[in-house]
Structure formats: structure tokens, C-alpha cells
Amino acid sequence: MAELSMADIEKMSARDAFGLALSEIGAENDKIVLLGADAIGSTRAAGFAKRFPERTFNFGIAEQEMVSAAAGFAACGKIPVATAYGFLISLRACEQVRTDICYPNLNVKLMSTHTGLSMAEAGTTHHSTEDIAIMRSFANMTIVAPSDSLETVKAVKAVIEYPGPVYLRMGRGETESVYSEDYEFVIGKAVTLREGSDVTIIACGIMVAEAVRAASTLASGGISARVLNMHTIKPLDVEAVLLAAKDTGAIVTAEEHTIIGGLGEAVAGTVCENRPVPVVRVGLNDCYGIIGPEEGVKQKMGLNAEAICLAVKRALRLKAR
Amino acid sequence: MKLTVPELEKKAAGLRIASMKMIMGAGGGHLGGSFSAMDIMTALYFNVLRIDPENPDERGRDRFILSAGHKAAGYVPVLAERGYFSKDLLPTFNKLESRFGVHPDKNKIPGCEVSTGSLGHGLAIGLGMALALRMDGLDSKVYVLLGDGELHEGTNWEAAMGAAQHKTSSLVAIVDYNKCSMDGPIDQVVSLEPLVEKWKAFGWDTIRIDGNDMAAVLAALQNAAGRGSRGAPVAIIADTVKGKGAAFAEGDYRWHYGCPSDEQLAESIKALGGI
After folding, report:
1. pTM score, two decimals?
2. What are the extents of the domains in chain B?
3. CATH number for the segment(s) B5-271
4. pLDDT, mean of residues B33-38
5. Which of B59, B65, B109, B131 should we substitute to test contact with A (largest number of A Cβ atoms within 10 Å)?
6. Nearest chain A CA: its distance from B75 CA (Å)
């Protein structure tokens, strides 16, 4: 990004990084149209809206209409960027995503913010903890969940250039930085953040930072953990997953999402069918998120490095059987 | 292609027979709604729509969305007759690996703009199209044919509000008001009345017509087509008869889906002018 340094971007929330990237890309590509559902401000797309009012359409609190309209825009050659909170796109407008966008394989970008438990204090109605599972089940869909604000900037750019339907999953608050230097972001290609030989931790979104922390803790206890940032959940980087199974013989997954149908099951399914090794999933264990400040809720729900370390120990016990 | 009213009437009669035969070949189909809307679809495809079956992807074409997708048993013969594909394909309707199912499929049917059948999607998709086309300076119209029972779906009213807000007069909604839904007469299921006032209250201009009177249908569509792209959207409330043209089925909600007998086909061919 031209005007901002990496250090500036690192301090931002994922949604702010999204807004910044969208506005810049909008200047380069006039096919991009922004669609909102009375949350253009809180999804941080307002910069684009201010800069390109003639390419911005607000549908009010009507996500189903917005998603169907996105299909209409894409069918006429535009690149619609539809913005809303994750639970509204994945649950409220679920059928519109599947039937209007994924079945005809239209070039619609679903930019989903406030995902996972990042709006924990807003209550369970506002948690997006099933969205990956829902979106994964749709043929033609691509799902990207960046780990921090820098990766979000790269992901937005990649998503706009990537043909077909994409669901981009972003949290609300500030993200912990995972990257300290620049790297190449390719949709569908996992990033190895740390090499290791005993176990591989495969994480997405904000759990990547927890995975890195867990690996450091494990290292001090003599356990060598590889860390993969699986920023693209679909299509899954099967090669990286199977290499992890082969090289390390045990896998732990971590996601800010229910363990049902998400990253963990994507990895487990791939491993089971191709190279069976123990896979232990960290995430919400078939339950709903509790209410409270995000950080406290994350700790209470076991979405942290400590839970990942416990899962690694379990995976290693299974591996030793 | 601009047929006259008598020519359109004759065309619609022939299409009803083609539809009935296709339904019988499949062992059943949505006869009631296909027939109530046949005059509207015939007027659109043989007079009103700016389309070219030889260039189905032409940017500046008009768009038609059969939002009430179950009327595909009427729509598919219309597309074949208009030249999008061979009429020889019609007997494959509903057969294994056919292009044509009970609901129309954009991925499989030449000329079909949107896969529909799940009700309440077409108007919002049409709104997105109308906005995109207007941005590109095209004067294309987007026509969306809605069922009356379909209007129970709340998404229609989201799109109705959105279209009024965004002033897409290039978006034309046509309600096939045949007064029946699947479970019974619509007034006994969930009434839509006062329907014209509902559309008006949502900011739309309305035209109410007898939707089985070809001259009235054509006049209403032409009226709606002449309103530019930046004004109040138009809803045509077309009072129709479910099963219109098939005497045995007219006005009977039970003919929402069914399979006519050979005698009923013969009777209909005779009544529709022996086509």
C-alpha cells in the first residue's frame, strides 16, 4: 500500500485494513462496486463509499436482498463486494449465497466482518461461529480467513483478482501481528510460519497468532511444532496438510469457529482419506459463544495457546499408541 | 421480432399446447401457473424484449427473470419457439440429465438468465442487474415475472424497497395474480390484498390489467418499457386465471401441478384452435 508502512497497517484492525485495501484497489479497478446493508461504516468500507459514491449501493438492513443483488451485478460484469457481519451473510443470506452466487459460479466477493467471537460482547446472536462450515459445503466457494491486518490487505487484493465466489472472513478488533516481514500471499497456499518435526499446528484467522505462541511454549518443553497458517480453508492446501502428516505424524487444528465442519474437519477429512495420523481440533466444542469482552471470552472458550498446547499433548499421546 | 396482438394470441395458444404435451411427456408439471402466465411470456418474447437468440450474451440486451421458476413448463417452450434451442429437445423435460427440470437452470438452458425456483430471489437479482446496466449507460430493461404466492416471501419486499430507493424504473415487476397458491385459493392461505396499494406504498408505479387479454398485456409492457432508468419502478399487477386455456384446469388450484389425460389434451387442442 502506497501511503502506509507495514508498521501502520500492523496497528489496524482487520476490518480497517480491509477498508483501506478496498479503497486503494477501487481506484485501480472500476468494475468493483460496493454493496452494503446499513453497515458500510462498521464494516469499514466507508473509505471506498466516500471516494466512489457512484459505485456504492446501500440496501439497508436487508442482507438477503444485498446478496441477490450482488448476483445481478456480477451477471452484468461487475465485481460486487458485498459487506456485512459474518453471521448475516452466512446464516441470514445463506440460501442466496448458495443458489444465486455459488451455483452459477458468479464473481461475487462476500466480505464478512465481525466474525468468530470478535463481537463477543454483542451476544450470541452476533457471533459467527458456523460460517466456515456453511460456506465450505457450497461447491464453487472459496474461503479465506487472514491471520492479521497485514495479511488482510494482501488477501483483499488477492480475493478481488481471484475469479468466482469468495467468502473473506475478518474479525472486528485489532489483530496480533503474525508477520514481521513481507511475504507472498497466494490463495490456496498455506504459509509455513515455523518449522517443526513432532507435530504440526494448522490454524486460520486470529488463531494463527495463538498457534505461534503455543509453538514457542512447546519448544521450551522440548516439543518441535511446525505452524501452518492455513489462510485459505477452501480450496485447502492438501499438499501442505499431507506433508505435515508425513513429516510430523500428528496434527492439531485451531480455529475461532465450531469444530464441526470448519478447518479442523477439512484437515481431518483430508488426512483420514490419504495419510491417517491423529488430528485434534481446537475450537468451539459444539456449543455457542458466551457473552463478554472478546479477550476474556476467548480465554474462557479455550481459543488460546494454552488450549493448543493441551491438544498437542493429546495428539502426541495418540501418535505414540 | 414484433408480432401483432392476433399473432401473439395465436402464438400463445400454440405454446400452451406445446407446454401441455411437454408436461404429459414428463408425467406431470406446473400447468396452472405456466398457463396463467403464458400470455405475458408470449408478449415479452415475441414483441417486447430486445433480445437476439443468435447473440444471447449481447451486453445491451433486455433481461427476463422467471422468478416464479415453477412456470418453467411454460417458459421452456417459449424459449424454444423463440429460437434459443431446438424444439426437439422439449420431450427431454424432466428426464435423466435433461437441460430442463421443473425449474429453469441458467447453467443449462440457453437464453435463461437466472436459475430460479426458490421463490423470492428474482426481484433482488433483477435490481442488481438494473443498477449494473444503468451504471454502464445501457438502456436495457429488466423484467421479473413473479407469482402471487411468491409474494409471501419477504425478500420481495426488501427488493421492492430497494428498487424504489435506487429509482430503477428500468426494473419492471410483473405479478401473475392467478389467485391460487399450492395449498388453495390464495385468500384462504395468506391474502395479498390490498395488493396494488402495497406496491404503491412501497414507492412503485402500478398498472393493473387483465393478464390474459393480449392487447392489455402488450400495452402495459410497452408502457412500463418507456420510463427510462431513473424513476419509480413499475409493477404490473396482471389478473390472470390459473390454468387459462385448459378448460378442465381453469381457476382450480389443484392444477398447480398435474398431468392432463389424452382426452383433456384433445379437448384443449380443439378449444385453442386446433393448433
Report:
1. 0.96
2. 5-271
3. 3.40.50.970
4. 98
5. B131
6. 19
